[in-house]
Design brief:
single chain, alpha+beta, OB fold (Dihydrolipoamide Acetyltransferase, E2P), six-stranded antiparallel beta barrel, four-stranded antiparallel β-sheet, 14 strands, rod-shaped
């Protein structure tokens, strides 16, 4: 029976019985050594939790609509904070800026004119007109006086005196009008007119600022250091405001999402030190600390492998890795050792 077991295990004649026994002993020793190595790297003290490197992505798009002029990044490219990644055709928005700037210059000039009042030459001209009207009034007054004396002596008809009196009244009215015009010029424009001009200028300046902002929004920049995950549009495409152009995976900070059962909540607290292990390099732990513990219970996500039943309620916590490198990839499964010191 023993011979039959060995024949079923390996092809007949390929290995001797002693070789097979040696192989079984070696495999047992290897398993014991691997177990001893894991225990050496992962001490039994503390709490071990399973989780994933948190996926932090951002979908970038323009805040304005338009025609895509160029896309400067490909999938897999790294970008730095503030680096230009794509541009829209900015000509329509440049025209808006130019139009608003022209209106601002016009209204600013009008406001300065109102604040400065009338020019000295205009005031001098008004004074000259007033002197002319005063001279005309004096002449009309003398003519009326003569006509009045002649009419009393019945040398001239009464109608001529009436005409002279009407001419005097007209000259007086023209003199009064010239006086009022001079006072108006010397006083300058009304405060209400200046306030209205100031409001008009402020409105156009706000429109100009909005136009310039829309102009700046035709350039798409990286919010922070990241890696391009997907390139959604190509040059020549017409995009709406807010539509995704590039999808980025942010590099920092690196978080690990873990889940802990309710009986173990008393063993953890924010700020507690954590060692994070990956399957690729179990001998190289990453330093971290607990930054967040959810106050609400939830079911274990299906993508997290734990030893307990998945239907048990757990609490989500987040660990911030202090010195990450490229060995931690977004979504990578990891094991966290919560240090209880």
């Amino acid at each position: 029976m023993e011979d039959g077991w060995f024949r079923a295990l390996i092809p007949l004649g390929s290995m001797s019985r002693k070789s097979i026994l040696f192989l079984l002993v070696a495999l047992g020793a290897l398993g014991f050594g691997a177990r001893w190595s894991w225990q050496a790297l992962h001490p039994a003290t503390g709490l071990f939790l399973s989780g994933n490197v948190d996926i932090r992505e951002v979908n970038l798009g323009f805040r304005v609509s338009g025609k895509v002029q160029e896309v400067l990044k490909q999938e897999g490219d790294g970008v730095q904070a503030g680096e230009v990644m794509a541009r829209l055709d900015a000509q329509p928005y440049q025209q808006e800026v130019d139009e608003a700037e022209a209106q601002r210059i016009s209204l600013k000039s009008r406001l300065e004119m109102l604040r400065n009042g009338y020019r000295r030459e205009e005031i001098d001209q008004a004074r000259a007109v007033l002197k002319e009207r005063e001279a005309s009034l004096a002449n009309a007054e003398r003519l009326r006086t003569r006509k009045h004396d002649l009419a009393d002596r019945r040398v001239v008809p009464a109608q001529e005196f009436d005409d002279a009196e009407a001419a005097r009244d007209e000259a007086e009215a023209r003199r009064n009008s010239a006086q009022a015009a001079l006072r108006l010029m010397e006083a300058g424009y009304r405060p209400e007119e200046i306030h209205q001009a100031e409001a008009d200028l402020a409105r156009v300046e706000a429109q100009l600022a909005s136009a310039r902002l829309r102009m700046e929004d035709t350039t798409l920049k990286a919010p922070e250091e990241a890696t391009v995950m997907s390139r959604v549009v190509e040059p020549g495409a017409i995009v709406a405001a807010g539509s995704t152009v590039l999808n980025l995976s942010l590099k920092s900070p690196v978080w690990v999402r873990l889940y802990v059962h309710e009986p173990d909540l008393g063993r953890i607290h924010p700020g507690q030190k954590v060692e994070v292990f990956t399957d690729s390099h179990p001998e190289k732990p990453y330093e971290g600390q607990i930054g967040f513990i959810s106050p609400r219970a939830e079911f274990t996500p299906k993508n997290v492998e734990t030893r307990e039943l998945r239907t048990q309620l757990v609490y989500r916590l987040r660990v911030t890795v202090l010195h990450p490198d490229d060995g931690l990839r977004q979504g990578m499964p990891v094991t966290a050792h919560i240090l209880e010191k």
